[in-house]
Design goal:
The complex is a heterodimer of chains A (621) and B (337). By secondary structure, chain A is α/β, with parallel strands linked by helices. Chain A is 36% helix and 20% strand. Chain B has 337 residues and is of the alpha/beta class. The structure holds thiamine diphosphate, iron/sulfur cluster and magnesium ion (MG).
Chain lengths: 621, 337
């Protein structure tokens, strides 16, 4: 690997935030992804935030069609994709218009001048050309006719101009890679692998990349060159992972640890579909994936599989959870293991399908008729999706209950370097199927009673095919022990409380929460889900700046970790940042009678660390 | 292979008190099934009845097998997950016309087109029994019920046509007044590999009494029920004097004397296209016209669960059994020391 970072004309910085923006057809996600991979292999710590429109091809050149990818690379441990980008790559006027306001004052703006012609300017709503009218004064501007230069180098290769145009994102990548001292090799190898059989495409993309690189070298842009050294991360083997992939692998791992095959019932929906796609690849792990006719069939089939002794899983986003509600109530009543995964997105209704939000907590908690409690866990970072998936499987199997796992669009698509766990260190998940009768009746006859409970208050998992254990289960209220239908009022009251208690009892196997930041502070920030990164960055900054702040982050949202109440009681200010209007803060208030203050952001975008710092300061005042 | 012990009807009957209204057609269907099960080469332990909600859907409680009484309309979906993961089991699905054709219509057609190995018994009483007598998607137009005081406006589904439209591989019809015929249909459906659906005309003597009397009363059957028999010309009538011909306009009833025996349609349940079976399903437009019963269609097509298992086996063969450590290292990695 060539390490261009050693060059003397390069200024070293701790971190850079780069935002690639262009039309949805310009390949910005791919460009960002390649830059990220090269940075990961180079050894930087990083975090990414892809943002794309809901339409596959929104009208070209418009603001609605802008697709962007933000990456934060650093020589030390970071937890967010960064606040204001230092660098914006704008492939067309719409991208500049949409994203220039995000760039830090005095930041660098790289534009593809070829795209700044009258029609595109008009579509973006510019009356005059911002490159020429002084709009960009105060920024460091790097202009390059990327489209024409790309066509130029591709001409000799025999690539048609229309096809050549498609490689202009590699020109941009080459230029940016030169500016920020990224190694070239990983991208060259990737191009070969990805487009292997299409020789002309390989040649065009490589040539465009090199032309971009050369443009940087010859256009005397040296003053803008920066480098970010590899980060000092924990020793180990790393890979750059997004949340949905980590989650899928966590499910596979859970299946291996339990020694039971996975059945996934799913109906495609953004941003959850990639889990279906990923798991569909791993049939050699015994994974069965089933693309159902709708979300109701998806969860129904998963429940049927669970009844048969497999690990039943269903994946979706908020709208799908709404559809699954009735079946989840059935699963609560049947007391069968089931893992339900909600990759949250902006709502209500279709809402913002490609944007993030975390407003399904109350639905996870209460979104079924009757008293129908189920455990809820939430992932806090892309790699944490792996561990959270294993935890969901563990809870489901041990306690014979549906478990809700909450992730969100930001975790699903965002990436971070992940220090791969030692597979042999992962704890096995014991599985116990009922194999014999469990009761002697008044006549001295040995019988099987499906609702007799063990120490965990879990009923036996007696799968069809087991000798002598034939029994019927159903959604009608049942008598504890026998499982026979019962409409008796006293019995129903008893069962409602029992179902509540058995889920609360799970707290006994949840590890106590650990406080990070300054435990002796007056301010405690309580988070859940993907806000972890920005909260951690913000509390770090505040503590370094002399404002003591403590932080806890909840993986378990129902039941809560056993020491949560005691921790909350210790702090003067309890602040709860959430990407909703205060759902966890309400649960905390209800459960612990604490004055938990909500900090909310519901714009479809994650909190930045800077926002978080301000919010914490303000709320604690 | 586990041997199948000899059993009797009693072994297949659970200890739960049966709670249908006295005189309900569901009793005779239950008896037919409980009496037939000992004759099938299956164990109670390997048998699962899955149902939704409705009077019909209480069925699993009365069978001494594994069983799940689930939620309204979803039984085909739940049974799908069970059948795909547990091909060793014998999966039965039982439900009413509201359960399977209204709220669960979507799951039913998808289970049928996928050809998942399950035997579906559709108890069609042309009414919502459990909710006390509203019209159902199979009720005849103009039906006066609590929810349709001026008569229903909806055009009904014909379950057989619907199943054929979904390209179900096994489609049959029987009725609750003829145990022998029911058992023959159930047995054939059970033997079938893939989704098999049997529509059972069932009398709800409380909310839709006598709906099928014109067809199923003992003295009406010869004239009104057209028995479909594979490989035989379709004939019926008190003296076997009538028959069915199929031409471009569909199926119609003729006097054999008028057209001659050779003109009659010879039933082929294994025909690869659904055209003739569909034509037969359209023959009767109401319950006062002669109506075909028997097997409309029985063909072989790749079974879903088997195909799923096949892909798993192939993945295992080409990639080797899954290795978690290798999976975690499957994206580009780098070392930090
Ligand atoms: C989600 C839901 N909606 C409505 C009902 C009420 N419900 C129960 S059974 C039924 C219809 C039953 O009719 P059918 O399926 O034909 O069965 P039958 O009682 O006639 O055997 C309805 C509407 C329900 N249980 N669940
Ligand atoms: S209401 Fe009708 S279908 Fe239901 S049990 Fe009574 S008679 Fe049978
Ligand atoms: Mg009915």
């Amino acid at each position: 690997m060539t390490n261009t970072a050693d060059r003397s004309d390069v200024r070293e910085v701790e971190r850079i935030i780069i935002r690639f923006a262009g039309d949805s057809g310009d390949g910005m996600q791919l460009t960002g992804d390649r830059f990220t991979s090269a940075s990961a292999l180079f050894g930087n710590d990083l975090a990414t935030l892809p943002e794309f429109p809901a339409e596959i091809r929104a009208p070209a050149g418009t603001l609605a069609g802008v697709s962007a990818f933000q990456v934060h690379i650093s020589d030390h441990d970071i937890t967010t994709p960064g606040d204001a980008p230092n660098v914006l790559v704008a492939m067309n006027p719409a991208a500049l218009k949409a994203d220039l306001p995000k760039v830090e004052p005095g930041g660098t703006v790289i534009v593809n001048t070829d795209a700044f012609e009258e029609r595109n300017l008009a579509k973006a709503g510019y009356e005059t050309n911002p490159i020429e009218d002084g709009s960009l004064d105060g920024y460091t501007m790097i202009t390059s006719p990327m489209t024409s230069l790309t066509k130029e180098v591709c001409k000799d290769l025999g690539v048609k101009p229309r096809d050549a145009e498609r490689s202009k994102n590699f020109f941009a990548l080459g230029l940016v890679s030169w500016l920020y001292s990224r190694p070239e090799e990983p991208t060259m190898l990737w191009i070969e692998e990805k487009f292997g059989d299409k020789e002309l495409v390989v040649a065009a993309n490589k040539a465009a990349y090199k032309a971009g690189h050369a443009f940087g070298e010859t256009a005397e842009l040296s003053a803008s060159r920066l480098a970010v050294r590899p980060a000092k991360l924990e020793p180990g083997t790393y890979t750059n992972i997004n949340g949905n992939t980590a989650l899928s692998w966590g499910l596979v791992a859970g299946s291996q640890l339990a020694g039971l095959p996975i059945f996934l019932g799913s109906y495609p929906i953004t941003p959850a579909s990639d889990i279906l796609h990923e798991l569909a690849k791993h049939k050699n792990f015994g994974v069965r994936t089933f693309q159902a006719e709708d979300e109701i069939a998806a969860v129904g089939s998963a429940l049927g599989a669970a009844y048969g002794g497999h690990i039943g899983i269903t994946t979706t986003s908020g709208p799908g959870i709404a559809l699954k509600g009735e079946t989840l109530g059935l699963a609560v009543s049947l007391e069968l293991p089931l893992v339900v995964i909600d990759i949250q997105r902006g709502g209500p209704s279709t809402g913002l399908p490609t944007k993030t939000e975390a407003a399904d907590l109350m639905m996870a908690m209460y979104g079924r008729h009757g008293e129908a409690p189920m455990p809820i866990v939430a992932a806090s970072s892309p790699s944490d999706c792996f561990d959270t998936a294993i935890e969901a499987i563990r809870l489901a199997i041990r306690y014979r209950t549906p478990v809700m796992l909450l992730s969100d669009g930001y975790l699903a698509n965002g990436t971070e370097p992940w220090c791969l766990p030692d597979v042999s260190s992962l704890k096995d998940i014991p599985v116990e199927f009922a194999s014999r009768t469990n009761h002697t009746n008044a006549d001295g006859e040995d019988v099987f009673m499906p609702y007799v409970r063990n120490d965990d208050m879990a009923r036996p998992w007696a799968v069809p095919g087991t000798d002598g254990l034939m029994h019927r289960i159903g959604g009608i209220e049942k008598e504890d022990g026998t499982g026979n239908i019962s409409y008796d009022p006293e019995n129903h009251g008893f069962m409602v409380e029992l179902r509540d208690e058995r889920i609360r009892k799970i707290a006994e196997s949840i590890p106590p929460l650990e406080i990070s930041g300054d435990p002796d502070a007056d301010i405690l920030v309580v988070g859940w889900g993907s806000t972890w990164g920005s909260i951690a960055a913000a509390t770090g900054r505040l503590n370094r700046a002399g404002t003591p702040v403590a932080q806890i982050h909840l993986r378990h949202l129902h039941p809560f970790a056993p020491n949560l109440g005691e921790i909350l009681a210790r702090y003067k200010h309890v602040l709860v940042p959430e990407m909703n209007l205060g759902q966890l803060s309400r649960l905390l208030r209800a459960e612990f009678l604490v004055d938990a203050k909500s900090i909310s952001k519901v714009t479809g975008q994650p909190f930045t660390a800077a926002e978080m710092v301000n919010n914490i300061m303000e709320a604690a005042r | 292979m586990t041997t199948v012990p000899l059993t009797t009807k009693k072994d297949w009957s659970s200890d739960q008190e049966v709670r249908w209204c006295p005189g309900c057609g569901d009793y005779s269907i239950l008896t037919a099934v409980q009496m037939m099960m000992p004759e099938l080469d299956v164990r109670r332990e390997d048998t699962v009845f899955v149902s939704g909600i409705g009077c019909a859907a209480r069925f699993p409680y009365y069978m001494n097998t594994y069983g799940m009484h689930s939620i309204h309309g979803r039984s085909p979906a739940i049974a799908t997950g069970l059948a795909i993961t547990r091909p060793d089991l014998d999966v039965w699905v039982v439900g009413g016309d509201g359960d399977m054709l209204s709220i669960g219509g979507n799951h039913l057609i998808h289970a049928l087109r996928r050809n998942i190995d399950m035997t579906i018994l559709l108890f069609n009483n042309q009414i919502y029994g459990l909710t006390k007598g509203q019209y159902s998607p199979t009720s005849e137009q103009g039906k006066v019920t609590k929810s349709t005081p001026m008569g229903s406006i909806d055009h009904p589904f014909n379950p057989i046509s619907l199943a054929l439209g979904a390209e179900a591989t096994f489609v049959a019809r029987t009725h609750d007044m003829d145990r022998g015929h029911m058992q023959e249909m159930f047995r054939r459906a059970h033997e079938h590999k893939g989704s098999a659906i049997v529509e059972v005309y069932q009398n709800c003597n409380v909310f839709n009494d006598g709906a099928f009397d014109a067809l199923t009363k003992r003295d009406a059957r010869d004239a009104m029920l057209i028995n479909l028999e594979h490989g035989k010309p379709v004939r019926f009538g008190v003296d076997n004097e009538r028959g069915v011909v199929i031409d471009n306009d569909g199926a119609k009833i003729v006097e054999v004397a008028d057209v001659g025996e050779d003109a009659l349609y010879v039933h082929d349940e294994s025909a690869s296209t659904t055209g003739q079976a569909f034509a037969l399903s359209r023959l009767a437009s109401d319950r006062q016209s002669p109506t075909p019963v028997g097997i409309f269609r029985a063909v072989q097509r790749s079974e879903y669960g088997e195909a799923v298992s096949g892909q798993l086996a192939m993945a295992n063969e080409t990639k080797g059994p899954g290795d978690l450590n290798a999976l975690l290292h499957s994206l580009p990695t780098w070392e930090v020391s």
